[in-house]
Design a protein that fits this description.
The protein is of the alpha+beta class. It has 16 helices and 25 strands. The strands form eight sheets. The chain has a four-stranded antiparallel sheet with strand order 1-6-3-10. It has a four-stranded antiparallel sheet with strand order 2-9-7-8. Strands 19-20-21-22 form a four-stranded antiparallel sheet, with no helix packed on it. The N and C termini lie far apart (about 60 Å).
Length: about 550
C-alpha cells in the first residue's frame, strides 16, 4: 500500500538521513505554523535525488475539496521528506499539497502525470504547494482512502554501495531438521544468518512492497540436496542479490529489509540462526572472536569473552567492555546495552571492531596487588603503551626511557616508570558545555585522587584555568536524563554547597566513573538505592525535587 515503506526504524544499518513517514505526526505543521497561502518552491537535485515522495490518486479528476478554505480538485501530496535532503532544505514539508509542477497546473491530475512532470524537469524542480495542518491532512487522507485508489511514487534514483557480503555458510541441525544458513556480514561484521527459504520470502515481500523496481533474479531453488559446489554458487548468487538490492537506499532502509537483517525471532533462537560472531579488541591489540546471540547484553558478552580468554577470576571486576568512539576515547558499556548493535552501527569505522576489553580500575594500590598475575601485567603494560601513544598518559622527560623499555620488552620496568607519569589511571572526557561557564567548554578528568575541570574553548583548546576538587568535597551527584547532563554538588569549607551541571553525551559514563571511584575509595556503597551513612562526607543521588530547586544556571566564582 502507498507509503508503507517510509515507516523506517533504522536499527542496525545506520544510513545517514531518514524519511518522515506520512503515517507519523512529528513533521506535519502544527495549526499555528501553517501558512494558508500557496507558495512556490524550487528544489535542486543532489546526489540523493530530490529527497521527497509523492502519494495520490491514480485516476484523473474527482470531487472538489476544501483545503484551507479554498476549493481544489484532488491533489497529489508529499508523503515523505528526506531529512537533510534537497526538498527538506528547500522548505518542503510532509503533507504539502501540490498545485503546480514546473509551472503546469496539476489539480486533479493522475499520479503518473505528476511523477512524469517531476522526472522531466532535469536537476531543477519548481513546485507550487500549499501546506496543511495535521488535522486537515488526516481529513483529506481519509477522503482519499474512501474515494479513490492511491499509491506512492518511490524514488529509486539514490544509490550507494553498502559493504554487505555473504562470505560463508554453515549447517544448522535441530531436533526436527537440518539445513544450511548463509552468514550475512556488513563491513566484515556479522549481522545475521538466514536460510534460503528466508531469502525467497524476502524477495517476494519486497517485490510486493516496491512493485515498480526491476529486482535482480534470485538464485533458483533446487529440488535435491546441493553439493558443496552448488551451495557455494548459491552463496555467491545471494550475495550479489543483496548487494544490488541494498544499494537502493529506499529498499535498504525499508522495514522489510531491516527486519530481515536485524530482527531476532523465536524461530531464530530455537534454530541457532540468532548466533553471530563478534570481534573484541584486546589491550595487546590482538582480536578475540566470540560467538554470541545478537540480543546478548554487555554482561553476557563479557562472560563469553572471559570464558574464551581464560581471564583469571580475580581479574573479572577490574576489566570491562568498552565502545571505541574515536581514536582518543572509549566509553564503558552499561550492563544492559547490546554490544552487537553497536558493533553493527559502527560498520563504517576503519577498525575491525568498535568493542574493546580494557582495564576498569582507578586504584593503583589495588592494581599492584594484581601484579602476581601474568595476564594482568601483560594487559596493564599494553594499555599503558597505548595510552602513552595517544597522549592520555603524559610522560614528559621519561618518553625516551619508556620507549627503550618497550622496545626491550621490559614490561615490569616500563610499568614501574609509567605509573609515576601524569595521566596514569586517569579518564579524560571529550570537551563539553558546563553551566558554570557562560562561554566555552570544560574538559572533565577523573583519578582516584581528584576530579578536575579544565577550561577550554568550544573547539577544545585549553585556556589554562584548572579547577580541582577533592573527593571529600563532593556531597551529591546524579544524572539528569532529560537534560543529558551529569550533575554534582560540592562544598568547600563553610561555604554554601553548589551544584554544577555538565552537558555531555557521556553523562551516564561520567556518573559510572564517580560511582566506581567512590567504591574503590570505600567511602560509600556504590550501588544506587542502598542504605547510606548520613555521617559520610559523600551522599549519592539528590531527589528530583531538590534537583529542580538547585538546577538553576549558576555562575560559580570558583569556576
Amino acid at each position: 500500500t502507498g507509503g508503507v515503506w517510509w515507516c523506517v526504524v533504522v536499527r542496525l544499518l545506520v544510513i545517514p538521513g531518514k524519511m518522515a513517514d506520512s503515517g507519523g505526526e512529528e513533521d506535519l505543521s502544527s495549526p499555528d505554523q501553517v501558512s494558508t497561502k500557496p507558495r512556490v518552491v524550487t528544489i535542486y537535485k543532489t546526489d540523493t535525488g530530490f529527497g521527497f515522495n509523492v502519494r495520490g490518486q491514480v485516476s484523473e479528476g474527482g470531487q472538489l475539496r476544501s483545503i484551507n478554505g479554498q476549493l481544489y480538485a484532488p491533489l497529489q501530496h508529499v508523503s515523505a521528506v528526506l531529512e537533510g535532503g534537497a526538498a527538506h532544505k528547500a522548505g518542503i514539508q510532509r503533507g504539502d499539497r501540490i498545485l503546480e509542477v514546473n509551472d503546469e497546473n496539476v489539480e486533479g491530475a493522475t499520479h503518473k502525470r505528476v511523477v512524469d512532470l517531476i522526472k522531466s524537469g532535469g536537476d531543477a524542480l519548481t513546485l507550487k504547494v500549499v501546506s496543511v495542518s495535521r488535522k486537515e491532512a488526516a481529513r483529506l487522507d481519509a477522503q482519499s482512502d474512501d474515494n479513490s485508489a492511491s499509491y506512492s511514487y518511490v524514488d529509486y534514483s539514490e544509490k550507494r554501495a553498502l559493504p554487505i557480503s555473504i562470505p560463508d555458510y554453515r549447517t544448522v541441525e535441530t531436533a526436527t531438521e537440518k539445513f544450511v544458513v548463509y552468514n550475512i556480514y556488513m563491513a566484515g561484521r556479522q549481522l545475521c544468518a538466514r536460510r534460503y527459504r528466508e531469502f525467497s520470502n524476502l524477495h517476494q515481500t519486497i517485490k510486493r512492497e516496491f512493485p515498480e523496481f526491476p529486482f535482480p533474479k534470485m538464485p533458483g531453488k533446487w529440488p535435491f540436496t546441493l553439493s558443496e559446489q552448488q551451495l557455494d554458487a548459491r552463496r555467491r548468487g545471494l550475495e550479489q542479490y543483496l548487494e544490488k538490492v541494498c544499494s537502493i537506499r529506499v529498499i535498504a532502509e525499508s522495514d522489510v529489509m531491516q527486519e530481515f537483517l536485524a530482527d531476532i525471532t523465536e524461530k531464530d533462537v530455537n534454530s541457532g540462526t540468532a548466533e553471530v560472531d563478534l570481534r573484541v579488541l584486546l589491550p595487546d591489540k590482538s582480536t578475540l572472536t566470540v560467538t554470541i546471540r545478537r540480543n546478548n547484553n554487555t554482561d553476557q558478552v563479557y562472560d563469553a569473552v572471559v570464558d574464551k580468554l581464560g581471564l583469571d577470576e580475580e581479574l573479572l571486576p577490574y576489566f570491562g567492555l568498552f565502545e571505541i568512539l574515536d581514536t582518543n576515547f572509549e566509553r564503558k558499556l552499561g550492563p544492559t546495552e547490546f554490544p552487537h548493535n553497536l558493533y553493527i552501527q559502527n560498520y563504517t569505522a576503519a577498525a575491525s571492531t568498535c568493542i574493546s576489553l580494557r582495564k576498569w580500575l582507578f586504584d593503583l594500590q589495588r592494581e599492584l596487588q594484581l601484579a602476581h598475575l601474568d595476564m594482568a601485567n601483560n594487559y596493564f603494560f599494553w594499555q599503558a603503551v597505548d595510552d602513552v601513544g595517544k597522549g592520555r598518559i603524559r610522560p614528559g622527560d621519561h618518553i625516551y626511557e619508556l620507549k627503550s623499555l618497550q622496545d626491550r620488552g621490559k614490561k615490569q620496568e616500563y610499568l614501574k616508570l609509567v605509573r609515576k607519569c601524569e595521566g596514569y589511571n586517569e579518564i579524560a572526557f571529550p570537551h563539553c558545555p558546563c553551566d558554570s561557564r557562560k562561554k566555552g567548554h570544560v574538559i572533565v578528568s577523573l583519578t582516584i585522587e581528584h576530579f578536575t575541570l579544565t577550561a577550554c574553548t568550544e573547539d577544545g583548546e585549553t585556556e589554562g584555568q584548572v579547577i580541582t576538587f577533592s573527593w571529600e568535597e563532593m556531597t551529591q551527584w546524579e544524572v539528569d536524563d532529560e537534560g543529558m547532563a551529569f550533575c554534582f554538588q560540592y562544598q568547600r569549607g563553610e561555604k554554601k554547597p553548589r551544584w554544577v551541571r555538565i552537558f555531555s553525551p557521556h553523562f551516564v559514563y561520567m556518573f559510572d566513573c564517580f560511582e566506581r571511584i567512590v567504591q574503590e575509595l570505600g567511602t560509600v556503597t556504590a550501588a544506587n538505592g542502598s542504605q547510606e551513612d548520613d555521617s559520610s562526607p559523600m551522599k549519592v543521588g539528590a531527589t528530583t525535587k531538590t534537583a529542580e530547586k538547585v538546577f538553576e544556571t549558576i555562575n560559580d566564582p570558583d569556576l
